[in-house]
Amino acid sequence: MRLATGKKNARSLKATLVFLDETGLLLTPLVRRTWGLRGQTTVLVHNARRDRRVSAIGAITISPMRRRLRSYIQLHPNISIKQPQIIEFLRQQMRHHRGPLIVIWDRLNVHRGAAVKAFVRKHPRIRIEQLPTYAPHLNPVEGMWGHGKGHKLANHCPDSVEELAKTAHEKFSEYQHEQHLLKSFVRHTKLPIRL
After folding, report:
1. CA-based, 20 to 30 A from 101: which of 2, 72, 76, 157?
2. What kind and span of H or E run contains 120?
3. Residue 50 has pLDDT above 60, yes or no
């Protein structure tokens, strides 16, 4: 499997692994079971339109030496993720990490765009590894998205996209202090990564 080669390269290059993925957050609440008074059904009131959303780019990184995990997120209210947003996120990762970066992501068209390829060619610190087709279970960021939407943002009824972006930023930033959760997302992928 090609991903195993990337892991070996990371060890020999002393490179930071950057698992990257995108998602969307809608104003419509994700309804989860909750506690309530007997006989009084909890009602979630929202004024959501399906075309209003917050697009997000996120990453879970693994440092080469200490194997420390970090999470990063960028939110983009009311726009879709395109090549300029991907490039800006890669720049952010270059500012946060010294040395080589091995970016592992899916085969989304925006990842293979001409501008992104040109940016990567211009910055030899960045190496790209693609996940196999239809393999979201191999990306630990998918676990972060699922946990964040299903637990941290569950039953949240924001009044505006701005409120959703603010709350999402607060909730997803909490992962920085939850190493056990970040490790669980990596372990859930069953990738042979020693933490």
Report:
1. 76
2. helix 114-122
3. no
